[in-house]
Design a protein that fits this description.
CATH architecture of the largest domain: 3-Layer(aba) Sandwich
CATH class of the largest domain: Alpha Beta
Helix content: 40-55%
Radius of gyration: 19 Å
CATH superfamily of the largest domain: NAD(P)-binding Rossmann-like Domain
Distance between the termini: 39 Å
Strand content: 15-25%
Shape: globular
Largest sheet: 7 strands, parallel
Oligomer: single chain
Number of strands: 13
Length: 310
């Protein structure tokens, strides 16, 4: 079995590659990367490729001949034009490449909870209206609808996953928990005086990246994927909404320290004050449930940051 993982140099991609190689499936993994080199293994082939290059994507995917494609590549910051290029055009090229293979692979495309925008305080099901509030969410809605159209029109066995807020060891400072972990360790080392945040009240559904990739693999491994998954979207979340203040309190309990926090004089308005996932569909489909608590994720992140700075 050949598995193609895009974004293999990123947080989720690295976790996905490690998970597949750790299974007893003997799968051969081809990891597409653009910026960061993925982990090495004797069953792993790195492939440097810009998925926005249509001709190269068609040729390289044909040569790889995967039976499963897990599309984790994309961008989450930038202009609308750059995000549409990275998240929609790249996805279209990959789907077209999958369609022309003699034996079309099972495909999972990664969407985002940003597609929902603000959907109230209750659990958000996949049937909730898609109301993105920014360029990233707009690009993910477009990629999501594009992918599911390939299932309907071209009969490609493709499904979409919508992860909520990812956390996990190695996450960059561009994300809330990554920022808190990195800045807390910076305070411990005397490199800074406080954790700088924009607000404490917004609430998010945090799910560990290792749980997220396990969910993707559980779906992709279903023998009846085409019947049970194709054309559908699946939430991946913890099912809990935790505030920024909650995250800080967990970090305090782990470290035994209360870190000073720097906030703006006036907290900016938050377009999406809270989000919480309804995981009913994915649990019913493949039995997946999150297994890593937020406390464990944050503990692992702090350990990772301490090792990194050493």
């Amino acid at each position: 079995m050949n598995v193609l993982v895009t974004g293999a140099g990123g947080l989720a991609g690295r976790a996905m590659v490690r998970l597949i190689l750790a299974t007893g499936s003997e799968a051969e993994v081809c990891g597409v990367f653009r910026k960061n080199l993925p982990p090495a293994s004797d069953r792993f082939t790195p492939l440097k490729l810009d998925l926005t290059d249509r001709e190269k994507t068609l040729a390289r995917v044909k040569a790889a001949a995967p039976s499963i494609v897990i599309h984790l590549a994309g961008e989450n910051h930038g202009t609308l034009a750059s995000l549409l290029d990275a998240n929609v055009i790249a996805t279209q090229n990959l789907l077209d490449a999958a369609c022309v293979l003699e034996d079309p692979p099972k495909v999972i495309v990664t969407g985002s909870s940003a597609e929902y925008g603000y959907a109230g305080t209750g659990p958000i099901p996949e049937s909730a209206p898609l109301k993105p509030v920014g360029a990233y969410g707009i690009s993910k809605v477009a990629a999501d609808l594009l992918a599911r159209s390939y299932a309907a029109v071209r009969q490609l066995p493709v499904a979409v996953v919508r992860p909520f807020n990812l956390v996990g060891p190695g996450q960059s400072e561009a994300y809330l928990c990554g920022k808190i972990a990195r800045q807390a360790v910076g305070i411990d080392l005397g490199h800074r005086d406080e954790i700088s945040l924009s607000d404490l009240s917004s609430r998010r559904d945090f799910v560990d990246v290792r749980d997220m990739v396990a969910a993707c693999w559980s779906l992709a491994s279903l023998p009846d994927f085409g019947d049970r998954c194709a054309g559908k979207a699946f939430n991946i979340g913890s099912g809990k909404a935790r505030s920024v203040a909650d995250v800080l309190e967990i970090v305090r309990k782990i470290s035994g320290k209360r870190y000073p926090v720097l906030l703006p004089d006036r907290e900016p308005p938050v377009a999406v004050p809270t989000q919480r996932s309804d995981n009913t569909l994915i649990t019913a489909t493949c039995g997946w449930k999150p297994s890593i608590t937020l406390a464990q994720s944050l503990s692992d992140m702090l350990t990772f940051e301490r090792e990194r700075v050493r």
